[in-house]
Amino acid sequence: MARGIGIGDEVAITATVRRRVTEDRVSVSIPSYNFPHSIIDHAKVKKGQQIELRGEVTRMDEEGGRVTVDLGPLVTIDIDKIRLVEKYKPPKRKKPLRDMVD
């Protein structure tokens, strides 16, 4: 199981282009995700080419080793198929939530 990945982190998934669906959309195969998925093609990729999809982790399943990533639709895949891009950093507060009482 990949360590250091948590909810809110930006992760990358390597997908393989399967075929062109329309002029501006391609069908991709995501490892360990057994449903069809298509994306808008900005770079004019070809069949068999590897592309990187990025999204945020929204849910983690500790027992099964699966994570849910927001790629537009939610995609649930094995944790060993993703790569950490950027850790989530919570915003810092400039002033306290409540006033200090003397």
Count of helical stretches:
0
For the largest beta-sheet, the strand count, sense and barrel status come to: 7 strands, antiparallel
Radius of gyration: 18 Å
- Quaternary status of these chains? single chain
Q: Count every beta strand, where a strand is a DSSP E run of 2 or more residues.
A: 7
Helix content: under 10%
Mean pLDDT: 88
* Strand/helix succession: EEEEEEE
Q: Quick one: overall form?
A: elongated
CATH class: Mainly Beta
The rounded distance between the terminal residues' Cα atoms is 49 Å
* Unreliable residue runs: none
Task: Provide structural commentary.
It is built from no helices and seven strands. It has 102 residues and is an all-beta fold. The protein has one domain (10-86): OB fold (Dihydrolipoamide Acetyltransferase, E2P). Strands 1, 2, 3, 4, 5, 6 and 7 form a seven-stranded antiparallel β-sheet that branches. It is elongated. The model has no long low-confidence stretch (mean pLDDT 88).
Question: What are the defining features of this structure?
Answer:
102 residues, mainly beta, OB fold (Dihydrolipoamide Acetyltransferase, E2P), 7-stranded antiparallel β-sheet, 7 strands, elongated
